[in-house]
Design a protein that fits this description.
The protein is of the alpha+beta class. Helix 1 packs antiparallel against helix 6. The protein is globular, with a radius of gyration of 18 Å. Strands 3-4-5-2-1-8-11-10 form an eight-stranded mixed beta sheet. It has nine helices and twelve strands.
Length: about 250
């Protein structure tokens, strides 16, 4: 898929030079099942893409699209995934909407899970890089040439995540945080933070019961106390990773 091979490096450039909106939505039902949805608005990328010119875009397979990809159809061809991780991914789907004229480029990734234990495994796998957008898209025909690239999930990877009945928590793992800071590619993040770049990251967690306690000062509760909303500038994690810590008891 030529489009994927072209769009990944451009998306990474935008990640470090523009403003993005990322929404992480988690819903857990009474029986422990639920889903995680990641929405990313990359519409600011359109002008960068259009500088290529119509002929170059056509050659690279870039065209308007509004399509849903079921991961069960592509996950088995993704390299580097264990059988367990493939099983976690198979129920998922990716929706891509690209309209060059209307300057719209949005992605939606939905991952259902059958238990909180499986959700913890899924979230942890997304953070360790094996379920990054780069590796998933390579399974859709993106190839993956050129080695690993910075990915939004690398930030989630510095946290230890816990999810069980009555508790959801995320806490910085100092060893993982040091390893990320020592990664040469992360120098781009530091440069971006000094340029005033904003990546608006919103986490919304819908729980089956009312929250008893949440320790993140940025957390907002719905009237029924079953929904927790936290909004950050993701770039701030480079200097203040503890800002993304939370412990929710319900």
């Amino acid at each position: 898929m030529k489009f994927v091979k072209f769009i990944l490096p451009v998306a990474i450039v935008l990640f470090f030079t523009g403003c993005l909106d990322i929404n992480e939505n988690v819903e857990i039902k009474k029986d422990g099942s639920g889903q995680m949805v990641m929405d990313m608005d990359m519409s600011q990328m359109i002008e960068m893409i259009q500088t290529m010119g119509k002929e170059a875009l056509a050659e690279k397979g870039v065209k308007n699209m509004d399509t849903t990809i079921n991961l069960k159809d592509v996950v088995d061809t993704a390299s580097g995934l264990s059988a367990e991780k493939k099983a976690l991914l198979r129920p998922g789907k990716v929706h891509i909407k690209l309209n060059l004229e209307d300057k719209v480029f949005k992605t939606n990734m939905t991952f259902p899970f059958t238990s909180q234990e499986n959700f913890q495994k899924l979230y942890t796998a997304m953070g360790d890089g094996s379920l990054s957008s780069t590796s998933l898209l390579s399974g859709m025909g993106g190839g993956g040439e050129g080695g690993p690239s910075p990915d939004v999930n690398q930030f989630n990877g510095i946290y230890d995540f816990t999810c069980k009945d009555g508790l959801m928590a995320k806490k910085v793992n100092e060893a993982k945080w040091k390893a990320l800071k020592d990664d040469p590619q992360m120098a781009q993040i530091k440069q971006a933070s000094q340029m005033g770049v904003e990546i608006n990251y919103t986490t919304t967690i819908v729980l089956p019961r009312a929250v008893k306690k949440v320790d993140n000062p940025l957390a907002k509760l719905s009237e029924d106390k079953k929904t927790v909303i936290m909004k950050y500038n993701l770039i701030d994690v480079f200097d203040h990773p503890e800002q993304f810590n939370y412990r929710i008891e319900y």
